[in-house]
Each structure stands twice: as C-alpha cells, then as structure tokens.
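# nightly structure sweep
# worker-07 picked up a monomer target from the shared queue
# config: single-sequence mode, recycle default, output format = structure tokens
# input follows
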Amino acid sequence: MVKAGRRQWFALGVLVLPVLLISVDMTVLGFALPYLSEDLAPTSAQQLWIVDIYSFVLGGLLVLMGTLGDRIGRRKLLLAGGVAFGAASVLAAFSTSPEMLIAARALLGLGGATLMPSTLSLIRSIFTDAGQRRIAIGTWSAGFSGGMAVGPVVGGWLLEHFWWGSVFLINVPVMVLLLVLGPVLLPEAKDPKPGRFDLLSAVLSLATMLPIVYGIKTIAEHGLNWTAAGTIVLGLALGTVFVLRQRALAEPMIDLDLFRERAFSASIATNLLGVFALVGLLFLVPQYLQLVLGLRPMTAALWLLPETAAGVAGALLAPVLARHIRPSTLIGGGLLAAAASFAALTQIGVTSGLALLVVAFALLSGGVALSETLTNDLIISAAPPQRAGAASAISETGFELGGALGTAILGSLATAVYRGGLPGDAPEAARETLGGAVAAAGQLPGPAGESLLAAAKEAFVQGMHVTAVVGAVLLAYAGIQATLLLRKKNSTKRESSRITVGV
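# output follows
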C-alpha cells in the first residue's frame, strides 16, 4: 500500500468542505424559519415541505448517485454536484415565494446526494493505507459532526446581522473553493468496467426510496396513518422487485453480495441504530433548553457546543485508538458509553438538569462519532475499490433512514407521552406541541396559565425520560451486536479488482 503524501492530505481538506456544508444545512434552517415564514408567508403544509424536501430528495437519490459516480467518475460527479449545490443556494437565498424556496431546497437535496457518497468513496481511492484511511475517515466524520452543531450558532449570528437568505449564501464561497481546488487536488476514480447501465434498476431504486422516506416523514409529522403506511408498503414492495432484479442481472446496479460480508452488513446496522438514537434525541433537546429551561436560542446553541467538541474528538481519536485496541471493542465501547449517557438523561428535571444534559449529550455524541468513524471504515474497506461509490451511498442511505426513523419513532413516542401527561381540558394547541402550550398558557389568566405551563413542561420531560430509556436499550443492543459480529471479518476474502485512478 502506498502511503499518502502532502497532496493527498490537502485533497482530504477539499473533501471535508462539502460534507461540512451539507451537515450545516441540515440544522441551520430551523433558526431561519420564523424569519422566512414572516417574509414568504407559507402555509403550514408548505413550511413542512420547505424543511423536509431537502432530506427527502437527498435520501431518495443517494443510492442512484453513488452508483452513477462509480460509472462516470466520482470527481466528475462531485464537481457537478458542487455546481448544483451552489446554484441552488443562490436560488434559495433570493426566493420570492414558498414554491420557489421548495424547488430550491429540492435542488439542494439533489446536489447533496451527489456530494456525500462521492466524498467518502474518493477517500477510499486516495488513502490505500488502512491506518491513514481511518485517520481520513475520522477527519471526514469530524467535519460532519462539527457542521451539524455549528449550524445553529452560525445561523443565529447571521440572522442577527443579515436577512434570512444569508444562511444559504454561506454555501457559495465554499462551493467555489471546491470547484477551483477539486480539479487540481482530487484524482478521478471510477469502475473501469461498469457494465451496461440498467435504466429500470435506476427507476426502481428511486421508486423504492422516495415512498419509504416520505412515509417515515409523514409519521414524524402527523403520526401513523393510512397514507404513511401505504407509501412505506409500496416502497418495500418495489424494493423487493429491485432486489430480485439485481439478483437476475449479470451486472447489477448494486452488488448484493456486499451484504454477505459481516463487516459490511453489521456496520450498516450499527450505524443506523446509532444515528436513530442520536437524531431522535436531537429533536427534543433544543425544545428542552428553550421551552422548558427558558434559554434564548443563541444561548441554547452555545450550550450544545460541548457536544460538538466531543463529536469531533471522538471521530479524530477513533483511528488513533484503533492502533492499540480492536475496532470491534472500540465500536461496542463507544455505543455502550452512549447508552449510559442516555440512561443518565432520565434524571433531568423541569427546573434542573442543564449540567447533566450537557455532559450526557457530549458523551453520547463522542461515543456515536467514535463508533461510526470505525464502522464507515469497515463499510468502504469491505467493498471492492471499484464499487466504493455504491457502498458509500448505501452507508449514507442507512444514515438518512436512521435519522428519519429516529425523528419519527422517538419523536412520536415522546409526543404520545407528552399528550398523555396534559390535563384533559388542555387547549388543542397545547396538545400539539410544547411551543403551542407556551403560547396557549400566555393567553390564559394568571393561575390557569401557570398551571397549564407547569403541566406541559412536566409532561414533556416525562416524554424525554421514556425516550431516553428506549434509546439506552437500543444503543446497548447495538454495542453488544457490534462487539460480537465485528470481532472477526468473514473468512471469505473478496477478490479486489483494479480501480482506475488518475489526475
């Protein structure tokens, strides 16, 4: 294996740029919503689509774009995605109607779907030494973890000084930097013998993912209903057809034999469970800080910075620790530490718990980041180099589904507990969200408003406690699973094929 030199490490810096922006985009919009809602006056349905269409398109297109990168070249796809992402950012920033902003967010999702698998698969091509590749993936993961938490801080500062469109315009200079440095520093990499492109497989992959993602998001927003159940069943049925077609093709779009590799399939399952728990809690924590403890948005965002630091530290420490400790032990240990932090959250209260929350959330983020850095390395290492794009896309799709399921299931569970804890005569707005309860309490006379607000806060905290117990159990299971299943790789060795790499 050839050791990476200075040029390759500079290339890694270029690859981290789009990942950082994509993760910032996942969290920054929440702070801009009140401002753009006042300016564009979207309906409630349009507001939901403004928020959701980005991850909806991103999750639906990842597999297709990862496979496309293997065929046409991952650098080419990355740079094309950079152009699309930058153009969509400008369109979003200067949107004059809700429909225009929804379309721009959809284009951002399209650009993101080309960027994510391309960055991780190019790391596989650039860093052939296993130890250096772990460090590179750790840096990649640290960029993603850091971006998700920095988003609210950056968004809060921009909104205090500029108009809401500024949260999108920050993407443009970074994308320009990618387009300038990418052709110089990044090598091209693709499958030298990709075979015939199967259009029906591409259609089936979209027809599988889009209904499933839509159904999960519908459950998160409106609870389980016939529309959500029907779309998920439709997606699963089409997914079955997709799998059968891949088995029948001599040159499939996705090599299903990848899932026979224990390192590959167990790592994807571990990733999905870790993200499921983390994102499910991330949905509740900002509400707890702002609506229960009464912190200002910017103050709440700053209290989450230790979580950012822990996530970055966990990602960067993973490759260093893996030199001395078996990866399966590290992955399992990280997830078990995260499970312990979830269990600790059952002790937070309505008037106290800020310090405990900050420490536990930091431990949770660090444990998940450590484990996912190593599982991502196992995923792309298990795949043949020429299929790195497809393998990376499958990994990222698992991440997206884990996040969507975490919000839908854990969010719905917390909401159900919250509603059950409210008094029977509580206003309908209070039953919808804690924010609605705060608004409703402000319209009631003194004692009645105070009573409703106290009951709503208590009910919300009880919902967090139940969610914390479920998250702790899931992460403990994921940790034990990883320790056992990833202890030894499959004895069957895959024959590696050459990959075309050049500048």
